[in-house]
Design a protein that fits this description.
The chain has three domains: 239 residues, 2-Layer Sandwich (BirA Bifunctional Protein, domain 2), CATH 3.30.930; 128 residues, YbaK protein (Alpha-Beta Complex); 102 residues, Rossmann fold. 29% of the residues lie in helices and 28% in strands. The strands form nine sheets. Strands 3, 7, 8, 9, 10, 11, 12, 23 and 26 form a nine-stranded mixed beta sheet that branches. Strands 17-15-16-18-21 form a five-stranded mixed beta sheet. A hairpin with a 5-residue loop joins strand 32 and strand 33. The protein is globular and about 100 Å long. It binds one RNA strand of 77 nucleotides through strand 8, strand 17, strand 23, strand 26 and helix 12. This is Proline--tRNA ligase. One of its GO terms (molecular function) is proline-tRNA ligase activity. InterPro entries: aa-tRNA-synt_IIb, aa-tRNA-synth_II, aa-tRNA-synth_II/BPL/LPL, Anticodon-bd, Anticodon-bd_dom_sf, Pro-tRNA-ligase_IIa, Pro-tRNA-synth_IIa_bac-type, Pro-tRNA-Synthase_IIa_type1.
RNA sequence: CGGGGUGUAGCUCAGCCUGGAAGAGCGCUGCGUUCGGGUCGCAGAGGCCACAGGUUCAAAUCCUGUCACCCCGACCA
């Protein structure tokens, strides 16, 4: 492929809006062009990478025994109402109306539609187990698209769904998907760690995310150096610092003028933050909830939501706080009525805490659960932090930032029951299928590949996803000897089944070398009068610093060998 | 939706405070030059200064509103 024909337009400087490395390189290398927030056009060069990623996914999914299907992106809204998720997805669901006023949604995911297809095709236990997948465009009206390709409003997802007769065989389907994912990420050159995760809006049981650890990530991951436990912060189990021991003392009202925050009150009264009781107000599915937690801890809203069995939890707005007569800055569960009081176990186990007096500028000392206040519900709803103890081995947990690349989880029978996916078992009894579901974000993977495979000069593609195997730079292409050598190089590469991008532009050598580094093909071949004098073409690998001059055929063979070795051993 | 920031040429940005003929570098087109790490010269094309309203003799510049985009939070692949 000649570079002139590929519409490769590199940028010397990245547009100001790009902050993430991957975003900057995507734009500078001319792989994508932004259209609107969360929407990108792919150029011929960028699309080749996307297709390579999809090829890897397809190969590994097929190898795992999954079957590729294709489902519409346009969904009748009734399907979403049937599952109950039309309301759950809220504004994230793009909605539209056809000419007959029938309502549709643009699919943000496909549990509903795959269930429809499954309900029409699965009849007997003899049809099971089966895993169906597709690589399809998803639409989500995200509140905040971000980071270039990290969070899009229209994106490509490989989504797979397994159907089993029971939980035991679901485990096998889940494990097969899990193994396929590990192969996919390894081949694509994205280092990932599997972490325990919350199953989120889709619901279900066991759930794991494949997370690419990077400072650019939007998720917080807790890792245990002792036993290898890894979990998303919203899911992570841990042991908070222990409470201070002591005998229950009589409650006492103290004047705390102008002291509102935990830090202020603790300092004023000469106690540690873990000797205080923090009050936080939420609305769970629009209903007010009073949350009590030890002062040194923060509320994990996902755990709170799960403890309440709520669909949605959001911080209470100031107006509602006032209307309910809650005293922000001096609130405690003492004497609170008319709303549930959810307490973290930390608040229940500690003794003699300092809490609000529910009147401005006053606090109470020596509050004790059971005596001074009573929780409606006690649960573990605190957010894990770096340094907290691992639940399994007691080691201090570490935190890292990460990007969720893929998610696998066990759905169970929820969708099967709502959407009518049943089979007849050996005894002729009608049973719901036990489902699992598995997703990978394709564009996000592209961004992660760049985050994980670049240097100061640009992208350094892993062989499997590189848009071309070799970048051929011609210097002095006007000279017949160079032009002839160029043809030899091209045919030698082609003879090995290698794809080459030939820089035939009429630019200076410096520009061509800079662009070759930026665009990042694994191998670079330079053809010039100088190289011909030395006996052939110069071969250099993007990740190496040495170069060698070889006859065209030998150079092509060396590229083929390097490629084969890299593919055999996994990407460098 | 809450908080912060930015909108001037394809890209990076000056100009705005203090109103008075729209600029630079890069990129693009043409000619020449150069030819192993973003050559050099000459000549060009390219802007409704985000949009709307207002103030003024006069608005990129001052005022009001709107929109878009980016960043931080709540959500997800």
């Amino acid at each position: 492929m000649r570079m002139r024909q590929l519409l490769v337009k590199t940028l010397r400087e990245a547009p100001a809006e790009a902050e993430l490395t991957s975003h900057r390189l995507l734009l500078r290398a001319g792989l994508v062009v932004p259209l609107a927030a969360g929407l990108y056009c792919f150029t011929p060069l960028g699309w080749r990478v996307v297709r390579n990623i999809e090829r890897i996914i397809r190969e590994e999914m097929n190898a795992s025994g999954a079957l590729e299907v294709h489902l519409p992106a346009l969904h009748p809204i009734e399907l979403w109402e049937q599952s109950g998720r039309a309301a759950l997805m809220g504004q994230t669901l793009f909605r539209l109306t056809d000419r007959k006023e029938r309502e549709f949604a643009l699919g943000p995911t496909h549990e509903e539609v795959i269930s429809y297809l499954a309900s029409r095709t699965i009849q007997s236990y003899r049809d099971l187990p089966v895993t169906l997948y597709q690589i399809q465009t998803k639409f989500r009206d995200e509140p905040r698209p971000r980071g270039g390709l990290i969070r899009l409003r229209e994106f490509t997802m490989k989504d797979a769904y397994s159907f089993d007769t029971g939980w035991d065989t679901l485990d096998a389907s889940y494990d097969a998907a899990f193994a396929a994912y590990q192969r996919i990420f390894r081949r694509a050159g994205v280092p990932v760690v599997p972490v325990a995760a919350d199953s989120g809006a889709i619901g279900g049981k066991d759930s794991q995310e494949f997370v690419f650890l990077t400072d650019a990530g939007e998720d917080t991951i807790l890792l245990c150096p002792g036993c290898g436990y890894a979990a998303n912060a919203e899911k992570a189990e841990f042991v908070p610092p222990p409470p201070l021991p002591g005998e229950q003392a009589p409650a006492e009202r103290v004047h705390t003028p102008g002291k509102r925050t935990i830090a202020e009150v603790a300092a004023f009264l000469g106690v540690e933050p873990r000797q205080t009781l923090k009050a936080v107000f939420y609305r769970a599915d629009s209903k007010p909830v009073f949350v009590a937690i030890r002062g040194d801890l923060e509320v994990n809203e996902v755990k709170l939501k799960n403890a309440l069995g709520a669909r949605e939890v959001e911080p209470m707005d100031d107006a509602t706080v006032r209307d309910l007569g809650l005293v922000a800055g001096s609130a405690s569960p003492v004497g609170i009525s008319g709303m549930p009081i959810v307490a973290d176990t930390s608040a229940v186990e500690a003794v003699n805490l300092v809490g609000g007096a529910n009147e401005p500028d006053y606090h109470l000392r020596n509050l004790n659960h059971g005596r001074d206040w009573q929780a409606t519900l006690v649960a573990e709803i605190a957010l894990a932090r770096a340094g907290d103890a691992c639940r399994t081995c007691g080691s201090p947990l570490e935190t890292r930032r990460g990007i969720e690349m893929g998610h696998v989880f066990k759905l169970g029978t929820l969708y099967a029951e709502k959407m009518g996916v049943y089979y007849l078992d050996e005894s002729g009894e009608r049973r719901p299928c036990v489902m699992g579901c598995y997703g990978i974000g394709v564009e996000r993977m592209l961004a992660a590949i760049i985050e994980a495979n670049h240097d100061a000069d640009g992208i350094a593609w892993p062989w499997e996803v590189a848009p071309f195997d070799a970048h051929v730079v011609a210097i002095g292409a006007g000279e017949p000897a160079v032009a002839e050598a160029l043809r030899q190089v091209e045919s030698a590469l082609a003879a090995h089944g290698l794809e080459a991008l030939v820089d035939d532009r009429d630019d200076s050598p410096g520009i061509k070398f800079k662009d070759a580094d930026l665009i990042g093909m694994p191998a670079r071949l330079t053809v010039s009068p100088r190289s011909l004098e030395r006996g052939g073409v110069e071969l250099r690998f993007r990740r190496g610093s040495e170069s060698a001059v070889l006859p065209a055929a030998d150079a092509a063979a060396a590229v083929a060998k390097a490629r084969a070795e890299a593919l055999g051993a996994g990407p460098a």
